[in-house]
Design brief:
With 536 residues, the chain is of the alpha/beta class. It folds into three domains: 148 residues, Topoisomerase, domain 3 (Orthogonal Bundle), CATH 1.10.268.20; 233 residues, P-loop containing nucleotide triphosphate hydrolases (Rossmann fold, 3-Layer(aba) Sandwich), CATH 3.40.50; 120 residues, Recoverin, domain 1. It is 47% helix and 9% strand. The chain has 21 helices and ten strands. Helix 2 packs parallel to helix 13, helix 2 runs antiparallel to helix 17 and helix 13 crosses helix 15. It binds magnesium ion (MG) and calcium ion. The site of calcium ion has 7 residues, from strand 10.
Length: 536
């Protein structure tokens, strides 16, 4: 009895798993990797997973023809530039750029990235130097990048220019990123919708990842309402030819940059669409664990099938003579081996790797070096699939609940406060800076702003967010910008604007309309005199 108890307690001596990602990493190392190594899995399928593959932030991949606003979209999300950014009407981004968080602003070249064991890019070395010279990481200190990595891609050319040879397997690289991405955003330009052959091939390379794809019809404010409907129809028609089920892929219509809208009658639509897109992206950190769990289950099942195939081939090899001819025969009749495995181990036909590819790869191998079946290696994986994964799966809802408050994307265009009339989302405490009492630069314009303010019908000296919004949208500035202005202007955070705060809001709108950058926090000369107590 005592002995039984002792055995039970030792059987329970499992690693103490603190979170799902750590658990997946443990399972991979303890259960799946030994099976992979024993049967040369990486020679046939994909290389072993690194710790960086598990710990990496969720990744958003941006794909589109040139000048559809990919780079600008990143700047829009971050609300700042990143090192090495180039934006323009010509194809300006000629490389893959992983925009990631870093304490230091810097550009790390591709050749250095692929030898860094702490990064998830090591396997990209197989695309060669021509690619590595066109690959970089741009590091910057931006809160958004604390929770996600964004990958900018070269603008895909249309028409004549697409003949340009990139010198590396562009579609292959795109596939590599697509496989690892949590979200793939395809960008189209509403006022210049043409789909080149290279872009069509690129979209085809994304097949099998349909569930990750979202479509952004960008620059939609450049056309009028009727044109926009026409472009939307044309886009769906074109996509129908390349995507399996374009009708279920979500299309977001909008204008994702910080300049005033040209046609702003669709403002409400753009606003709702942007909100939906943000909500979708906001889920990525939370869903990343589930995606990685699903991917690892798929990998474990393939590793098992692979072990059965290799060990069955080994079993059917002669021990002495005629090894070469038997090998050729086994490759020729590989489908028979598949059937044998199917019957003996109850594997469903859909779980087997493609015959053609497997035959090619088997030719390169010495069958006499293959190992026989080791049931213990298999049962470890089975046990992990049946028990371990279930345990991790049960942890996910809890973890997601916890992450709802902790691991949402913060900063950049995700910053808007709850009581901002321009957007929902998480708020953050503002740092008003330490101001000595300097003159308030808005003072000289206050006469004008005061008469405006009175017309808006203040109650107890204040106007509501809704009233302010109605007035502020007349600037035609997009909501992300107005949301930022609101956040800076509502200095005491009561969700309303008093006269001074209104003056500040109007001043900031003028700054932006003159194409100047908005401050991240209020400098002393912008803090209204009556609010200076907040800066102490
Ligand atoms: Mg670009
Ligand atoms: Ca206020």
């Amino acid at each position: 009895m005592l002995r039984w108890l002792r055995e039970d307690s030792s059987a329970r001596k499992q690693p103490d798993i603190r979170n799902v990602i750590e658990g997946l990493q443990e399972f991979y190392k303890d259960c799946i990797l030994p099976l992979e190594e024993h049967y040369k899995f990486s020679d046939f399928h994909s290389p072993p997973l690194d710790p960086a593959d598990f710990s990496a932030n969720p990744m958003i991949l941006l794909v589109g023809q040139y000048s559809t606003g990919k780079t600008t979209f990143i700047r829009y999300l971050l609300e700042q530039d990143f090192p090495g950014i180039r934006v323009g009407p010509e194809p300006t981004t000629d490389r893959f750029i992983a925009v990631m968080y870093g304490e230091k602003e810097q550009v790390i070249p591709g050749n250095a990235l692929v030898v860094d064991p702490d990064r998830q890019f090591r396997k990209l070395s197989r695309f060669g130097n021509a690619f590595l010279n066109r690959f970089q990481c741009s590091q910057t200190q931006n809160d958004v990048l604390n929770s996600i990595t964004i990958v900018d891609t070269p603008g895909i050319l249309s028409g004549e220019k697409q003949r340009l040879d990139r010198g590396y397997d562009f579609v292959g690289v795109l596939e590599w990123f697509a496989e690892r991405a949590d979200r793939i955003i395809l960008l189209f330009d509403a006022h210049k919708l043409d789909i080149s052959d290279e872009f069509r091939r690129s979209i085809e390379a994304l097949k099998g990842h349909d569930d990750k794809i979202r479509i952004v019809l960008n620059k939609s404010d450049m056309v009028d309402h009727q044109q926009l409907m026409r472009v939307y129809g044309a886009l769906m028609w074109s996509l129908g030819k390349v995507l399996q089920t374009p009708e279920v892929t979500r299309v977001y219509i909008g204008s994702f940059w910080d300049k005033p809208l040209q046609h702003d009658h669709n403002r409400k639509l753009f606003e709702d669409e942007a909100k939906d897109l943000f909500k979708d992206l906001q889920c990525l950190p939370r869903n990343a664990a589930l995606r990685k769990l699903n991917d690892l289950i798929k990998r474990a099942r393939l590793a098992k099938v692979h072990a059965y195939i290799i060990s069955t081939l080994q079993k059917n090899m002669p021990s002495m003579f005629g090894k070469d001819s038997k090998k050729n025969q086994l490759i020729q009749n590989l489908h028979e081996t598949y059937r044998e495995v199917e019957k003996e181990h109850g594997i469903s036909p859909g779980d087997f790797p493609p015959l053609g590819k497997m035959r090619e790869l088997l030719k390169e191998h010495d069958f006499t070096k293959f190992h026989q079946l080791r049931p213990r290696l298999i049962s470890k994986v089975d046990n992990m699939l049946a028990n371990g994964m279930t345990k991790l799966m049960q942890m996910i809802p809890q973890e997601e609940e916890m992450m709802k408050t902790e691991h949402v994307i913060r900063g950049g265009a995700f910053h808007h406060t709850d009581n901002s009339p321009f957007a929902g989302g998480e708020g953050e405490g503002a740092d008003y800076g330490k101001g000595e009492l300097t003159d308030w630069v808005v003072n000289e314009k206050m006469d004008k702003y005061e008469s405006e303010f009175m017309k808006l019908g203040p109650v107890d000296g204040k106007i509501s967010g809704a009233t302010a919004k109605k007035e502020m949208v007349k600037s035609k500035l997009p909501n992300t910008v107005l949301g930022r202005i609101w956040k800076l202007s509502d200095v005491d955070k009561d969700g309303k604007l008093d006269l001074e705060e209104w003056g500040l809001a109007r001043h900031l709108i003028e700054i932006k309309l003159e194409q100047n950058e908005l401050p991240m926090d209020l400098p002393p000369h912008l803090i209204p005199p009556s609010k200076r107590e907040f800066s102490e």
